Automatic annotation (TrEMBL):
Gene name linked to the record: citZ
Any Gene Ontology biological process: tricarboxylic acid cycle
Keyword Transferase assigned: yes
Molecular functions (GO terms): citrate synthase activity
NCBIfam families xref list: Cit_synth_Halo_CitZ, cit_synth_II
Keywords assigned by UniProt, alphabetized: Acyltransferase, Transferase, Tricarboxylic acid cycle
Pfam families referenced in this protein's UniProt entry, alphabetically: Citrate_synt
E.C. number(s) listed in UniProt: 2.3.3.16
Database matches in SUPFAM superfamilies: Citrate synthase
Family: Belongs to the citrate synthase family.
InterPro entries, A to Z: 2-MeCitrate/Citrate_synth_II, Cit_synth_Halo_CitZ, Citrate_synth-like_lrg_a-sub, Citrate_synth-like_sm_a-sub, Citrate_synthase, Citrate_synthase_bac-typ, Citrate_synthase_sf
Protein name: Citrate synthase
Classification of source organism: Archaea, Methanobacteriati, Methanobacteriota, Stenosarchaea group, Halobacteria
Amino acid sequence: MTDALKKGLEGVLVAESALSEIDGDAGRLIYRGYDIEDLAHKASYEEVLYLLWNGDLPTSEELESFADTMQSERHIGDNVLDTLAALADSDEHPMAALRTGVSLLSAAEPESDADPTDRDATRRMGRRIVAKIPTILAAYDRLRRDEEPLEPRKDLSHAGNFLYMLTGEEPSETAEETFDMALILHADHGLNASTFTSMVVSSTQADLYSAVTGGIGALSGPLHGGANQDVMNTLLEIDDSEKDSLQWVKDTIDAGGRIPGWGHRVYNVTDPRAKILRTKLEDLTEVTDDERWLNYTSTIEGYLVDEMGLPDKDIAPNVDYYSGSVYYKLGIPVDMYTSIFAMSRAGGWVAHVLEYSEDNRLIRPRGRYIGTEDRQYVPIDER
């Protein structure tokens, strides 16, 4: 055992994975050997799920079967809806509602008694969980708006179905394509905190519902999820202010403030996912004729690049810088942005659980004791 202390496990290798590779210097993200740009522009989220869970892209027949099965598993029971309604009455945060909803799904799991080492059963459970998460989130948002939840449709994609259940309107082709792309971009990203949490839980051979619920809990923390919400709140603050975006960013920097959506623990250059989402923000802007959010983000980026030189300091836009505006244009409530992250990343959590279970070993690191030594017990009446 090494005596070197690595706080936060930074730089510590704890597993090998064939799922995703991040090149922080070149700004590349790869899923199972495929560049994220190729997958984002050419594949669907369902294809990417199949790829992550099975190792290869599906044939047309395999994809049709996989997508049809997911469509048949989107429905959630009255017990979940009743619980979501109670949470809506208490104004619970969407991430907390999602955590509770996913945990409750296990009560209706048809393979709840499956051997935890049965990877096929785990894969089927994962498919059910991922299929139902959009239904949980859309139902919760409608319930807190005093609207009836909508039943999922079988003729829409995973992405399109969520937008329909959320808004009550069938999404445009641009909106569905954009949201599908956003789900692909967030599906996996190495051993981040929520993915590692899911792996730790599953390494005990706990059920997949526990592992995914643990991932949701980890993602709910502001140091992991929520940055895109911070970005959007910043843009809304600019929109409400009397300053133009350039003056706002100058004043914020001069006052020692920071701009959310910049910098990343892994990337030293622009996050490749940010580049892709910027193009989708441009597409949505063209469709809706509302240029505010694109103008604000472009102005801020121009100042931070040209005047502040942040890329020269290895600080560049990350995926959250543009995803906030994209979600806002799609009509998704700001406080649901981290939940959308979870909707996508749940597929990656399942993939890592499946992969790690091939050669499972209980994850059990050690800590170094730095407390007091040789203390003697004193009877309570003498203290």
